[in-house]
Amino acid sequence: MANQIPDEIQNDPQLTKAIEQLPWNYNFEIRKTIWKIKQAGAKRVALQFPEGLLLYACVISDILERFAGATSIIMGDVSLPRDHAKNSRLPSCCVDDLTAKALGADFMVHYGHSCLVPIDVTTIKMLYVFVDITIDVSHFATAMHVAVTELKHHFHDIVVPQAKPLSPGEVLGCTSPQFPDRDALVFVADGRFHLESAMIANPSVKAFRYDPYPKVLSYQRQIYGREAIDRAKSAQTFGIIMGTLGRQGSPVILNHLTSMLDSCGKTYFTLLLSEIFPDKCPCVIGSTLIEVTH
């Protein structure tokens, strides 16, 4: 079977010892990655990490270079200017295959969220590693059991929503399922970025966040720029920002927005930007801005 990892990789004791340098509860799929690199005959591999996983990048790079026989390039979420990188909130689903190719890579490994950019449209061979992280499931189940016991008269059924092509229960900052018929949402995460996406998509649903690290279940309030929304209702000229960084921009959404503005008799212009900063937009002050992503 072509995709089956060979025994010499699967059972290599030296590789096993090298992998032990990484956290036991993080699944970086090292053996699969080595096999895919060898299958592709790759010589220069780009490794793209989200900010939260960059601390493991050097260890993974050393392992792959040693056991896959290819040199590696370590990349962040996207290629940002140094002075802007610290302010970036770009998510880990931004595949930067164009930069990887420009750097001479012939294979790319993307660590983080789902493959929103299919491998058949990227400019080089790709491997997506989702990096499953094991948590204390029993504690989460206990916390949920206590919550359900207290609120059992208010809940009759539980669902795990899905927004394809994402996996069930998976949410991105730009892609969230809608479930308006639900009363509450329980979100498992150590941050708010992706939860906010789900809350925006479901404004009438109460949201709770379970943080698996301190093991805390908390109620989350919705924070929206309602004043900006009210101003947009009476605006006549709209600036549509089309993201150009890491395949962020969606031409389909752009066309949909321009069609909506045309039907409302509004004027608009399209602005191509890698990322939004106040000093980049002096020419559009006074216009209402809309950001276009996937």
UniProtKB/TrEMBL annotation:
Entry's Gene Ontology molecular function annotations: 2-(3-amino-3-carboxypropyl)histidine synthase activity; iron-sulfur cluster binding; metal ion binding
Swiss-Prot/TrEMBL cofactor(s): [4Fe-4S] cluster
Recorded catalytic activity of this chain's protein: L-histidyl-[translation elongation factor 2] + S-adenosyl-L-methionine = 2-[(3S)-amino-3-carboxypropyl]-L-histidyl-[translation elongation factor 2] + S-methyl-5'-thioadenosine + H(+)
UniProt GO BP: protein histidyl modification to diphthamide
Pathway(s) served: Protein modification; peptidyl-diphthamide biosynthesis
UniProt entry keywords in alphabetical sequence: Iron, Iron-sulfur, Metal-binding, S-adenosyl-L-methionine, Transferase
Enzyme class: transferase
Annotated EC: 2.5.1.108
Family, as annotated: Belongs to the DPH1/DPH2 family. DPH1 subfamily.
Full protein name: 2-(3-amino-3-carboxypropyl)histidine synthase subunit 1
Protein species of origin: Aphanomyces astaci
Lineage: Eukaryota, Sar, Stramenopiles, Oomycota, Saprolegniomycetes
